[in-house]
Amino acid sequence: MTTTTAQFRERATIALEDVRLQQALDGATGRFATARQAALAAIPWADELRDHFKAIRAATLANLAEHLQTFERQATAVGTHVHWAQDGAEACAIVTEIAQRHGVTLATKSKSMATEEIHLNAALAKAGVRPVETDLGEWIIQLAEEPPSHIIAPAIHKTKEQVAELFERESGRPQSAADIPALTAEARRMLREQFLAAGMGISGGNLAVAETGSVVLVTNEGNGRMVTTAPRVHVAIIGIEKIAPTWDDAAVWLSLLARSATGQPMSIYTTVITGPKRTAALDGLPDPDGPEEVHVVLLDNGRSPLVGSKYEEVLQCIRCGACLNVCPVYREAGGHAYGSPYSGPIGAVISPLLFGLDKYPALPHASSLCGACQDVCPARIDLPRMLLELRADLVTQGIAHGSEAVLEGSVSLAMRSERVWALLMGMGRVGQRPLLKNGKLALPERFNPGGERPLPALAKKSFHDLWRDGEV
Amino acid sequence: MRTRTTILTRLQSNNRALAQPTTWQSRQGFNDLAEQFVTALTAVHGEPHLAPNLEGATAQLGAILAELGAQRVVANNEAPIADLNLPTRWPHLQWHIVGETAGDLREFCTYADVGLSSGIAAIAETGSVVIHSGSAQSRVATLFPPVHIVLLPTSRLTTDLFTFTATHKNTHLANGTLPAAMTFISGPSKTADIEQTMAIGVHGPKRFIVILYRE
Amino acid sequence: MTANRIALFVTCMVDQIMPEIGVATTRLLRRAGFTVEFPMAQTCCGQPFFNSGFRAQALPLAQRTIEILEPYEAIVIPGGSCTGMIRVEYPHLLQDNPRWYYAARRLAAKTFELSEFLCKLESDDWRQSTANCQETVTYHDSCHMNRILGLHDEPRRLLQAVGYTIAEMEEADRCCGFGGVFSIRLPEVSNAMTAEKLRQGRATSATTLITADPGCLMQMRGMRRNDDTIQIKHLAVALEEAITGKPWSME
Ligand code: SF4
Question: Fewest CB within 10 A of the end CB: N or C in chain B?
Fold first, then answer.
């Protein structure tokens, strides 16, 4: 995937013209944002808690190697197999190898941005393993063969009619779009069969707790529990930055995650996985159920070079999606415009950083720099500053358009002398005359689609002129 | 192995001395933990009940099972459930007591009407029950059946996540004591993935009933 | 605020496109008893270049702006975004050079956005106590003014002081869609953002939408239809109208 300015505009235009999608986007992001605000307002010390969380995240990243090693040691001690993956290809190879070793043909998956990021589903399918997404929203978009459009609500762009049609195709039975609970029940029934039949469960991880070697999964539907309980093998793929050194740190993390994401004080299920089922539990007897093998894949994929760089702060992100819900650009353009599994403000920063600035040159500019994202981020990540840094990188790395550089350079040069600038603007006052319509300047279609927003003309007299002529 | 070294070396070269902040102390204070738990769980569509004692709680459980018309019940064999001799008390029901009853647990759970468990703790602020896996604590028993009922003494209530971690640091959260699965359950399974409309009971239980009793 | 000699930095947009905002600002400041000076060498603070990633092109503009404004006791700007650039971004931009860095910090300490400046004054001469207009208006929080400078109450306080009633929008702090070059780079999204802003403005009982930032003003006016039910005005102009009791005029 790539996202140039032209691609962003094209995809955003599709979203803008889709009345139904606009309503869904408005409704969903508005509801999430309002719920988040209420949830944080309910704890009067929320601001201090966020500061504290930021301090935790910063300190963790400063000593990340140590925490990862602690995690590895503790996880291994309870029988978890820990793997390290440099990039998506390596992570996919690890997972498919495990699947093939166990003769797995069907794998159930709980929602995971990390697996979206590495395109795991495609790799599994190629290796003869059918991946089935089990988060309802993820499943819907899997059936529709589309990418997610929101970090925590991947199918907000789908209508119930579209969902009914997809379910009809999948189940071979007629479905009623009018009845959302019935559609949900149908999904429960169809997916339950898959849970029971799957040989492997694949999940992401919202965080990993180093001191006990645990992986923590947060879901509302219960699919996270299903995936980590029913199949014989469980594989969790988790970014190396998602480490909480201790349970004290994890408690702060969990206190902010659901509140920031959906406005819930706590998600319905917070599942903590610490190794495979015990052959001898505390009383010496074996666990009655649970996976026999647990694997954790620690995924780098462009993260470790960010540690110690001017972009390190972005690794404090916990993927709550709060920044999307308040982003005025995301709320109009929708998630698909970004052309990355990560959309919205965090997507605009992290997609170029993880996948290449040259592939996503439009994203640092897909923001009005309004700063609403930073206001709501539980880790108070300064996303606007990082967008500015990325824009500067676009220029210094020569990715920005040559014509743009010429324009910026010459205007800046002219502005370094008030006389040259005044002269230029004086010429503009004359030159604009033929272009004026009702006193306004109509830019070419490319900059002013549909003539919707004409620019004001240059004033008859500049303030400089008024002042000099004693008219102020 | 090479990947591991590459990643760790790169990270180590950017190591900085930055101490983890001191532990966040809970600032939450509730007059009555049980009351707060009931309020919080009700708000998330859970069904809390408050009984004066274990006997009352057991009677409550009987009434709920009858009202549900439950026939097949799977129960985790842990205190206080283990001491209630449920199969003798209600012999008309088909029971699977985890770790005791012979037969396929998973198969039973697939068709069970109710899963019954206790919990190691409950968090008042959020209305969450914390359950552990163990030799007598099945994971699917609290997951597959459409109804999950929890029987829990109020003495296991704790204020919030911070008091939970502080209290259980050396017991339930320490190395070696943390089981293969620990789950915080805060209501019935739900989704809003179709048109942002809330629907209860996707993959997990559709009803989450907690009977708290005072000791 | 004891400064008597203050400099007006009008911003390039006001200078070339909306000079009336500069005129209104000057009148307000003079009424408050200040001798207003206009350093003629000023052009642009450099923000458009900085925000586009062209830092090397922004740098000389920042340096010359510092030099031009340095001699004055206080600098007043009728725009939150440019004030934010000088106050917050200049020190960032110049942090590698101690001399310039300190100059930037010194300038930052005496540069004020208009409403912020007026609110700091002990006297309220700027408004003449007779000002009492009856109009209901709604106020748009420009992003940089609100989030970078934290100026949320100040413009509202001024509006109320001259008699305006404020009917708040659903999301007064939602971006108007301008974002500088963003509005030309991604015009479809930018326009949709502005349309939403105007929709929220029209949904109030206000007859006028007021903003303290020339950029937002230009953006929203651009999307305003001729027969629109809502007017869009800059804070300085709205204040002048209320104080004089007459529609704005350059005379
Ligand atoms: S950047 Fe902050 S607000 Fe956005 S997803 Fe990450 S943690 Fe949440």
Answer: N
Q: Is the pLDDT of residue C115 over 70?
A: yes
A321 alpha carbon – ligand 1 mean position (Å):
5
What structural domains and CATH numbers belong to chain B?
Answer: 30-213 (3.40.50.10420)
Residue A363: pLDDT band with limits 50, 70, 90: very high
Q: Give me the residues of A, 354-373, that contact C with CB < 8 A.
A: 364-372
Q: Are residues C11 and C75 in the same domain?
A: yes
**Over the stretch B7-51, which tens digit does the pLDDT of each residue have?**
999 999 999 999 999 999 999 999 999 999 999 999 999 999 999
Q: What torsion do the CA atoms of A335, A339, A341, A347 make, to the nearest 10 degrees?
A: -70
ipTM surpasses 0.95: yes
Q: Indicate the number of domains in chain C.
A: 2
pTM across the whole model: 0.95
Residue count of chain C: 251
CATH for A65-299? Answer: 3.40.50.10420
- Same domain? C116 vs C140: no
Does the beta carbon of A381 lie inside 6 Å of ligand 1? yes
Contact C196 A328 (CB under 8 A): yes
User: C198 in a domain, yes or no?
Assistant: yes
CB A408 to CB C57 under 8 A? yes
Res B195: pLDDT:
85
Residues of B in contact with A68 (CB under 8 A): 7-8, 11
List the chains bordering chain C where 3 or more Cβ pairs fall under 8 Å: A
Q: Looking at ligand 1, which residue's alpha carbon is closest to its atom 4? A: A323
CA distance A432 to chain B (A): 49
- Tell me which of C60, C92, C120 is where a domain ends: C120
**Chain A CA closest to residue C18:** A459
Contacts of A468 in chain C (CB under 8 A): 40
- pLDDT tens digit sequence for C127-177: 876 667 889 999 999 999 999 999 999 999 999 999 999 999 999 999 999
> Domain segments of chain A: what residues?
1-42+322-401, 65-299, 417-468
